[in-house]
Amino acid sequence: MIELILRKAGPEDLLAVMDIENSSFEHPWPANCLLPELSDGKINYSLIAEIDGKVAGYLMTWRVVDEFHIINVAVAPDFRRIGVASAFLGALVDEARLSGINSMTLEVREGNSGARKFYERHHFKEVGVRPKYYRDSGEDALIMTRSVDE
Ligand SMILES: CC(C)(COP(=O)(O)OP(=O)(O)OC[C@H]1O[C@@H](n2cnc3c(N)ncnc32)[C@H](O)[C@@H]1OP(=O)(O)O)[C@@H](O)C(=O)NCCC(=O)NCCS
Predict the structure, then answer these.
(1) pTM for the model
(2) N or C, which end of the chain has less CB nearby within 10 Å?
(3) For all residues of the chain together, what is the average pLDDT?
(4) 139 labelled catalytic
(5) Cβ < 6 Å from ligand 1: which residues?
């Protein structure tokens, strides 16, 4: 039985987060983009998942008025498909209810079929497209959203 712990992220998680980022994305964010997201603040709300004491994934969000904007989420390849990202969404829903946030929004690459399936499984719906949103590849972004009380 694995032990999954979710906790707030901090700057000390940078190296572990970079490892997962680099093994999860073709165009990973550099350290100087990841670091500012690893602190708790008025806008930032970021979580780390630990399994058996090892960083297994991260969720980075911004509070934007009455919405959580999911800006980055990744789970280390060895820990995928065991519910880590689903646990993040559960924790985000709990935090949203505590802080009067009504919806969750994100952008996902059109070609990221695994992530799209994950979000659909969690009741996110496509509500728009940002054409050529990703400057690295020119890929479109799909905007997906759901209400907290879905
Ligand atoms: C997308 C991602 C965060 C999902 O994390 P995860 O912890 O593996 O997800 P969960 O185990 O909670 O998945 C729950 C369900 O989502 C769906 N799902 C998740 N990953 C999927 C995939 N690659 N393909 C199809 N469905 C998937 C399934 O329905 C899954 O349930 P099942 O395993 O019983 O079939 C992870 O695959 C990842 O880190 N990918 C690389 C980074 C990335 O693309 N991030 C999203 C950027 S927008």
Answers:
(1) 0.97
(2) N
(3) 96
(4) no
(5) 24, 73-75, 80-86, 108, 112, 114-115, 117-118, 121
